[in-house]
Specification:
single chain, 276 residues, alpha/beta, two-stranded antiparallel ribbon, 8 strands
């Protein structure tokens, strides 16, 4: 499994979102990547230098952008064993004092909020899987909180795989440039996550059209909290639940788990002792 991870935030900085596309099976991973490349080629979706453009929510400006975005959403629904999860967190600056230690700066406290939300997100999609690879774009908001180390500690524990052996739940975490063809599934995460943001913070009519198209494909009323707050996320036979799920969270659900922090500190100490 590969997890293509991204994040978003409204301009007022009162709403924070993390999202990911989970793809199970190397064949499905390659099929989606190739399909996105083909979509760009068939629609001449290029920049002024003739290079393929990124499919990004914030760059939906023209009729062609709308067309390509809608077709990209079609690819998500058509690709087998491909799932979307996101977490939406309303927050205010004073909420950050619930995270970390009193003397830590707000920037670090926000990074802790970011990382805790990411852990919630991964749990929504990873149940029943091992040896997953997490690929993320440049995560400005989590710098200073040892993002990779915390995720590895939380999900690096072993679990039984289908062959009866024990394997790490997440075996590798890597940052990547989303504009590269090989990582273009991150672009699809950005697009769908942007539609969820748009539901809560409507934008231009071009972006609204793409959001409405996604809603139509899902067959739901909208992407708002009132629609999704009472929806459950039951596991299917592969343990991953439905195709699409939005989890609206309250800030108090993300407060720091002291036991987890202690575990991280112990790991750092052990790593330091081994390096001596």
């Amino acid at each position: 499994m590969k997890i293509y991870f991204d994040e978003s935030e409204d301009q007022a900085k009162t709403l924070f979102l993390v999202g990911a596309i989970f793809i199970y099976g190397e064949e499905n991973i390659n099929l989606l990547r190739e399909a996105i490349n083909k979509l760009k080629n068939e629609n001449s979706f290029t920049d002024g230098k003739g290079q393929p453009r990124e499919i990004k929510y914030n760059k939906i400006l023209t009729d062609k952008d709308i067309l390509v975005a809608k077709k990209a959403i079609d690819l998500f629904f058509a690709n087998k064993n491909t799932y979307f999860r996101c977490c939406v967190v309303p927050w205010r600056e004073q909420d950050l004092f619930k995270f970390g230690r009193k003397y830590q700066p707000l920037k670090l406290k926000k990074a802790i909020l970011y990382t805790n939300t990411t852990k919630k997100l991964i749990k929504l999609g990873i149940d029943g899987f091992v040896n997953a690879v997490l690929i993320y774009d440049d995560l400005v908001r989590c710098k200073g909180d040892k993002f990779e180390e915390i995720i590895e500690t939380s999900f690096g524990r072993t679990a039984l795989s289908s062959d009866g052996n024990r394997s790490p739940i997440i075996k590798n975490i890597a940052s990547a440039k989303s504009n590269l063809d090989i990582n273009n599934s991150v672009q699809l995460t950005d697009l769908i996550l942007g539609c969820v943001l748009n539901q809560n913070r409507p934008a231009s009519k071009q972006k609204n059209k793409v959001r409405d198209y996604l809603i139509k494909k899902l067959g739901v009323n909208d992407l708002s909290r009132s629609t999704w707050i009472n929806k459950s996320c039951p596991a299917d036979e592969r343990g991953i639940g439905p195709k699409f799920y939005i989890h609206y969270l309250n800030i108090d659900e993300l407060t720091v788990n002291k036991k987890s922090r202690k575990k991280i500190r112990m790991k750092r100490k052990n790593n330091l002792n081994r390096s001596r």
